[in-house]
Amino acid sequence: MSVQTATPGATEQPRTHYLNAGHTIASWLLTTDHKRIAILYMISITIAFFIGGAAAAMIRIELTSPTGVMLEHETYNKMFSMHGIVMIFLFLIPSIPAVLGNFLIPMMIGAKDLAFPRLNLLSWYLYMAGSILAVVAMITGGVDTGWTFYVPYSSVYANSNVVLVICGAFIVGFSSIATGINFIATIHKMRAPGLTWFRLPLFVWAHYATSIIIVLGTPVVAITLALVAVERLFHIGVFDPAQGGDPVLFQHLFWFYSHPAVYIMILPSMGVVSEMITCFSRRKPFGYNFIAFSSLAIAVFGFLVWGHHMFVSGQSVYLGIVFSVLSFVVAVPSAVKTFNWTATMYKGRIWFTAPMLYALGFIGLFTIGGLTGLFLAAMATDVHLHDTYFVIAHFHYIMVGGAIMGYMGGLHFWWPKMTGRMYPESWAKLAAGITFLGYNLTFFPQFIMGLQGMTRRYHYYPEEFQALNVLSSAGASILAVGYIIPLAYFLWSLWYGKKAGPNPWRAAGLEWMTDSPPITYNFEKTPIVTWEAYEYPENEEDDPLPDLDDEDQLLAVGSGEAPKR
Amino acid sequence: MSLEATAHGTHDEHLAHQFEDMPQQNDAYLVGMWAFLVTEIMFFGALFTAYMIYRFTYPHTFLDAHRELDVPLGAINTFVLLTSSLFVALGVRAAQLGNRKGVLLWLSLTLLCAFGFLGIKAVEYSHKFEHNLVPGSNFRYEGKLPTQPDRGLVDTPGVQRGLDAGGPMIGAVRLGSGQMQAQSVQMFFGLYFVMTGLHALHVIVGILVIGFAVLLVARRHKSVQYFMPIELIGLYWHFVDIVWIFLFPLFYLIPQG
Ligand code: HEM
Ligand SMILES: [Cu+2]
C-alpha cells in the first residue's frame, strides 16, 4: 500500500482523496461515498445539536428564578419538548453511528464502501426531511407533550402540532433503520480476507449490537407514534381510555423501544471509548471477548427491562418486580466494560491526549450515571424519585456525560483521519477540561434537587431550590463554552491545522493504514489481515510516540504498515 | 501508483463497485433483505400485540363486531394472494434459469393478482363506509351488542379503571356499559382499518416494485438480467402474503365462544 513519500526532485502531485474528488454541490448531494455522507451527517447533526442546545439554554435561564424569567407556561412546555425531541431523535440517536460509524466501519473492515451506498444516501435525505419537518412544526406551532408523547394527552388533549412532529420523528426513524440494515449487511459480508469476527475492532462490535437494537426496536416506536397520529385524526380508540383503549399499552410499546434506544445512544460511544483507551494505553484491551460480548448482551437484555420506566404507571406490582430484577441484570454488562477498560489502562503506557481525556471523562460520568440508574431500577426508591430532577440528572449523566463525551472524543481521535489535519492539542485539552467541569456543575446539583423533591417539567418551584438551580444554570453556560471552543478550532484546523499524516497516533486498525483523508474507495488494494486486533508493540523502544506539535514527526509514519510485533 | 486498483480488474457487469465478487454481493443483498423483513415483522408485531390485548379484554364485543366483516370476500382475497405467491415463486425460478419470458409472464400474473386483491379490498372498504363503520365522528354501529359484558367493562367495586374509578368518562358523562361496548366496537374497526390498511399499503408498494421490475425486464435492463433482484422481490412478496395469512383469521374468523 502507498507510503506517502515524494520522489526527490519530482514535483509533488496533489493526491486525490474523497474531499477533493469533486467540488460541485451536486457531487456532495448526490454522492454515494460513505465518507462524504458521514460529513453531510456531521454538518446536519451539529446544527441539530445547537438548536437543541438553544432550547436548553432557554430552559436553564427560565429556571434561575422560582417564578420564571421570561417564558409563558406554554412556551416553557414547548421549549423542553423541543429540547428533548431534537436532542434524542435528531442528535443523540444518529450522532455516532451516522457520522463516525458511517465514516469508519467500511474502513475498519477493509471494505470499499457500505453494502448499500444509495440506501445510505437515502437515509441522509430521510433524516433531513424528517428533521426539517419536525423542527419547523415545533417552531411554528410547537408541541408541549415532552419527547415521550404520552397518551391520552398527546392523542386527545394537546392542542398543538403533535401530528406533524410525529411524522417527522417517524421519517427520521426510517433513516435510522436504513443505517442499521446497512451496517448489519456490511459487517456480515464485507470484511476483508482474514478479518475474522474476533479480529474486528470493538467499535465495529458496538455498532453491530447497536444495529440489532435499531432493527428490532425502531419499527415498534414508529408504529406506536403513527398510532398516536391516527388516533388524533380518526379517533380509533386504541390508546384513549374514554373509548376503552389503554394508555398503559402506549407506555409499554413506547418504552419497548425507548429503553433500548438509550443503548443506541450509549453503545456506539462505548465502542469509541474502547478504541481510544486501547490506543492511548498502548495495549491490547483486557478481555477483548468480554467487551465484545457485553455489547451483544446489552443489546439483548436491553429489550427486557422497559417496564422500569412504568413502576408508577399502574402496571401490576409483579410485573414491576420482574422488571426491577432484570434491570439490575442489565447493569452487569455495562460494568464489565468499565472494569475491562480500567484493567486495560492498568500497566498500560498512558498517553494523555485530548481524546484520552474525553475517554476518561466518559468513564467517570458514565459510572455515576449507571450507578444512579440502580437507584431508579429499585422499585421502592423509584416511587420517590420518579419524575424528579434525579431522573433528569441520571439520564443526562449517561447521555450527555456518556454519549456526547464519546462523540466529542471520537471526533478528536479521528479528525486527522477525516480531514488530514491536526486540531490544536492544547486548546482541545482545555475544552475537554471545561466540558467536564461545566458538565458536573450543571447536573450534579440536579441529583440533590431531585432527592429533595424538585419535580421535572415545571418552571415554577419552591424558593429553597433556587441556589442549586442557579448553580446548575451557571454550569450550563460553562458547558456551552466547552462545546463552542471545539467548534471554533475544528473549523480553524481545516485551513491552518498541521498536516496529520496517515497515522498520527501510531494506532492499530485498518483505518489508519490508508491516506488521510482517505481515497474514494478507501484502499488502493483490498488489505489482507494476518494479525490480531490491537497489536501494539510490547516495549517502549519499538513504539516511540510522536510529538504532536512537530509536523515532521507526524508525517514520518507512512500508511500501509502492518503492525510490528 | 494508479487509482485503478487491481481489485477492480475482473469485473462482472452486474457487480456493484463496493463488492469484491458476485457471491459477496448476493450474500449482502440477502442479509440486507432479511434484516429489512425483521423490521417489518416488528412493525406489524406491535399492532398484533395491541390487537391481541384488546381481543382478550373485549372478547364478546369483538366477536359481535367481526360479524360485520365479509368472510367470503376475505376468503377469496386469501386465495388470490396465495395464488400470487405461487406466481412470484415461479417467476423467481424462471429468473434463476435465465428465462426472461417466464419472468415476464409470472410477474405480470402476480401483478394481476395484486390488483385483484386491492380491488376486492376496495369493495370491502366501501361497504364499511356506507354502513358508517369507519372510526371517526360519523361512526354508527347498529349491529348486535353482546348480552354478556366483557371482562374489561365490568364495574368491579374498589378497582380503578380508566381515568376515574368506576368506569371511563367522556367529558363529565359516565358511560354505561352499553355505550362503552359501542366504543370498543369502534376500536375493533380502528384496528381493522389500521392493520389491513397498512397491509394494503404494502401491497401497493409491492405493485410498484414488481411493476418496475417488469418494465426493466421487458427492456432488458442490465440490473435485472441476473436473478438476485427478482429473488429479493419474491421474498418481500411472500412476506406480504404471510402477514395476510395472520390477518385473515384474526379479523374474519374469530372463533366462537
Ligand atoms: C446505559 C445507558 C443508559 C441511558 C442512556 C439511560 C437513559 C435514561 C433516560 C433517558 C431516562 C429517562 C426517560 C424519561 O424521559 O423519562 C432514564 C430513566 C431511567 N433509567 Fe436509565 N439509562 C441508562 C442506564 C440505566 C441503567 C443501567 C439502569 C438500571 C440498572 C437505568 C434505570 C433507569 C430507570 C429505572 C429509569 C426511570 C426512572 C423514572 O422515570 O422514574 N438506566 N434512563
Ligand atoms: Cu430504561
Word description of this protein:
The complex is a heterodimer of chains A (565) and B (257). By secondary structure, chain A is mainly alpha-helical. Chain A starts with 24 loop residues before the first helix and ends in a 9-residue tail after the last helix. Chain A has helices at residues 25-29, 34-62, 73-108, 117-140, 153-157, 162-189, 202-234, 247-281, 288-301, 317-345, 354-377, 379-385, 389-419, 425-452, 466-496, 551-556. Chain B is mostly helical. Chain B has helices at 22-57, 59-66, 71-96, 100-130, 177-218, 228-252, and strands at 160-161, 164-165, 169-170, 173-174. A two-stranded antiparallel sheet of chain B has the order 1-2. A two-stranded antiparallel ribbon of chain B has the order 3-4. In chain B, helix 2 packs across helix 5 (177-218) and helix 3 (71-96) packs antiparallel against helix 6 (228-252). The interface between A and B is large, with 54 and 55 residues. Copper (II) ion binds next to helix 8 of chain A.
Helix content of chain A: 55-70%
Order of helices and strands of chain B: HHHHEEEEHH
Which protein chains are joined by the largest interface, and how many residues does each one contribute?
A-B, 54 and 55 residues
Rg over CA atoms of chain B? 24 Å
CA-atom Rg of chain A in angstroms: 24 Å
What is the number of strand segments of chain B? 4
> Mean pLDDT score of chain A, rounded?
91
Distance between the termini of chain B: 78 Å
- Strand runs of chain A, count: 0
Give the averaged pLDDT of chain B, no decimals.
Answer: 83
What is the approximate shape of chain B? elongated
What is the string of helix and strand elements of chain A?
A: HHHHHHHHHHHHHHHH
Bound small molecules, deduplicated: protoporphyrin IX containing FE, copper (II) ion
